[in-house]
Design brief:
Largest sheet: 4 strands, antiparallel
């Protein structure tokens, strides 16, 4: 992934949410200043400013099927915007609304409001009428304030500030299970891994945890220095991107939880702390927002190096690869040192190396005969995609 574009000073105040329109290839951002802005990501130009809410815009949700966008705010109003970005429906719930989710199978809009979850069925959409767009299906009461909602595989996964995860049937709102104290502090963020059917949580306890859809924990990732503010699953490289109020994301192998940031090219520090992340499958981009009100996009480059293996102090003169019962191994030779690199393959990615093997004499090209490959790459061995 490489930095594709940076939009500085996108809003006057902090950016709280964003959503992407794959048809118009536009990004929508919502802010503490109560505004929603429409951006052309290629040019970085702001095309529209939408002013309808009287409070912080807390979430934006673009629905591909209907080509409409929903927005919610602390003013207790859910607004539906037509394809021309004109508001055509308002749902006044009179409770600060925190987050939105969409159930495509049942055409349900799910809204999280303090300790309540509202399930709405979307009626027939007509932009030229004032009919009630949202019919209430179910109202669910929680024990803690709602922080985030995921809708997948016929289930609603709800994370709340009381450190609990509650799972419901998305059709009826029936509670299936509840897990208390999954983090030692409040849940701050949550995302979904659709390739492996797992949900991922981050908390104020500075940890990331992965769960199956029935609530069984797979593993956790620690070592962060601040609250987890953003998580996304990159479907292209099968990795997790995590930010914890940091100026660059950390990247982990999704299957093992191994930190592979140092092996990924194009990752660098940015001005301000990155606070949200989202993978856009339509464009193979990751979008993030930073504390100084800027928008950053990373785009997948299929022609860049797959992994970068650091650690050689000499010109790489010889490379060879062999198989063992522990898997493939790569040997690099330069100067008077032979290094054995452990190749950990997880969905095509290559990471890590072991300790070097000492060699008394200068290593030449005769170190391998049948599979000899000579490079003059200084200090770095690179593995390229085919």
């Amino acid at each position: 992934m490489e930095v594709h574009h940076i939009i500085p000073d996108a809003h006057q105040q902090k950016i709280l949410c964003f959503s992407y329109n794959p048809f118009g290839q536009r990004l929508y951002t919502g802010s503490e200043d109560g505004s929603i802005k429409c951006w052309d990501l290629e040019s970085g130009k702001c095309e529209r400013v939408l002013l309808k809410h009287d409070g912080w815009v807390t979430d934006l949700l673009y629905v591909d099927k209907y080509n409409i966008m929903f927005s919610c705010s602390l003013d207790g109003v859910i607004v539906a915007w037509n394809p021309l970005l004109k508001p055509f429906f308002e749902k006044k719930v009179n409770i600060p609304c925190i987050c939105l989710a969409w159930d495509a199978k049942r055409k349900h809009l799910i809204a999280g409001m303090k300790e309540w979850i509202h399930l709405y069925k979307v009626t027939k959409i007509r932009f030229d009428t004032t009919i009630d767009l949202l019919d209430t299906v179910e109202v669910i009461r929680l024990s803690g304030f709602v922080r985030c909602i995921i809708c997948a595989q016929g289930r609603l996964v709800v994370g709340s500030f009381d450190r609990a995860i509650t799972i419901y049937e998305s059709a009826t709102g029936k509670k299936l299970s509840k897990m208390n104290n999954i983090h030692k502090a409040a849940i701050s963020v949550m995302t979904y891994d659709e390739d492996n059917n797992r949900f991922i949580t981050g908390g104020f306890d500075k940890k990331v945890k992965l769960f199956t859809m029935d609530g069984s924990m797979i593993y956790e990732i620690g070592g962060f220095t601040d609250v987890i503010t953003g998580i996304c699953y990159n479907r292209i490289t099968k990795t997790l991107w995590v930010t914890a109020n940091s100026n660059q994301p950390q990247i982990f192998d999704a299957l093992t939880g191994q930190n592979v940031t140092e092996f990924v090219s194009g990752i660098s520090e940015h001005e301000g702390d990155i606070q949200q992340l989202q993978f856009i499958s339509a464009t193979n981009e990751i979008i993030g927002v930073a504390s100084h009100r800027c928008v950053i996009t990373w785009k997948h480059n299929p022609f860049t190096a797959l992994s970068t293996l650091q650690g050689s102090n000499h010109v790489i003169e010889v490379l060879t690869c062999t198989s063992s019962r522990h898997g493939p191994q790569l040997f690099s030779a330069g100067g008077s040192t032979i290094k054995r690199w452990e190749i950990v393959e997880a969905d095509g990615q290559i990471y890590g190396y072991t300790q070097p093997l000492s060699h008394g004499d200068h290593v030449g090209k005769r170190a391998t005969e049948k599979r000899q490959t000579a490079f003059s790459v200084r200090c770095t061995t690179m593995t390229w995609t085919s």
